[in-house]
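pinning this so it doesn't scroll away 📌
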Amino acid sequence: MDWNRTKTIFIWVFLILNVFLYTQYLERYNEGQEIEVLGETTKLESLLKEDNITYSALPNNNESAAYYSGQIKNFTPSEVPYFANQRTEIENGNKLVVTMDKPVKLQETGTHDKFTEFLHSHVHKGDSYELWNVDNENKVATFFQKVNDLTLYYNVRGYVKIFWNDEDRVIAYEQTMLEKHEKLEKQQNLLTPIQVLQILYGKNLLKPDSQILKMKVGYSTIVQLTQTQVFAPTWEVRVRLADKSEEIHFVNAVDGKIVEIQNDLSEIVEPEEDLE
């Protein structure tokens, strides 16, 4: 008897058996996960229906993203971008405060709204920012910088504000910038929209008679008081309440924690050390 050949056959048989059993295990596990998610989804849908909380089509569940870092852009006079009809001052080393010599008429195009059109034509690296809010009462349009082509929410070092007058002409803008964006780790699977709604509902943050308007993935800042900052994938959830007002919730898309964001873009002051 050829024992070496017999031993080899047994090894291959056991390997094939192990692969088969492992495949069966994965299939059963995935089926169980699907049943569990389906059960959670059905239960949540029932609870939302009872509270008259509605939503339309949710985003694709196959979302993935990575943590990123970025550095605050500090401007020197020689680095200030030149645009005709603009006078630029540097504030605190990292903010450009720009005044238009002659106010610029806001004009809409077929592809951009009037504020985005101005941004792309008159602001340094304007296409790396995304419109967030238009305050018609105070005549201020706010843009947030993008990281990995996703919105970075309320970072005082990565925004543009455009100011205009009663004649619909831009009179000034201010700009801060984060640069040298780097991926800190590989892409991660993110919480699904249903899981995010379940988290918000469980914390009583979804009120009865409200409507989920939009859900999308962006970034929030988890380390901000340093030159190098760190950004976490974050679900943005916009909700319209019964009184027609809107709320925006932010949820860490990896660990599911509610993200508390200072939403006024005011300067963040690092706390003084206790000298006692």
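📌 and the second one:
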Amino acid sequence: MTRNDSTATIETTRIEPDPEVPLIRLTRDFAATPEQLFRAHTDPALFARWVGPDGMDTTIEHWDATNGGSWRYVARRDGVDFRFRGCFHEVRPDRIVQTFTFEGEPDSVALETLRFEDLGDGRTRLHAQSLVDSFEGRDAWLRGGMQTGVDQGYAKLVALLSSGAA
């Protein structure tokens, strides 16, 4: 399947590191409209219900999903806090551009772009990419449990979408 082939379904998340720049691409199909996926990514109450791996309790501390807005949340597991923050550069129904920082590594800021491709029949393909500042940083993300967090988070998102909550 080629990257732009909209006929084949992507039921699991494809995570692809770019060989030439420190970038990670994620692709996943959802049985949801672009509007539903957009809402799940911009509504703080919905976002907190699905983001991250199982066993994490997410609390939104600040959330302004508008052009120029910012966000911050804390994910907790077993009494340990993991804090994340960023800025929304562009928020529109088909695309979100934002920064992403894990506060445990404040010098490492990623630029993320999410795009919602309408496949028709109530299905949407999410295209996401994260550009980090180095290959070492990118590879650390990949080794640090990114696949597990993404897979478990998107499984929760699928359940949320199936329930009609988004």
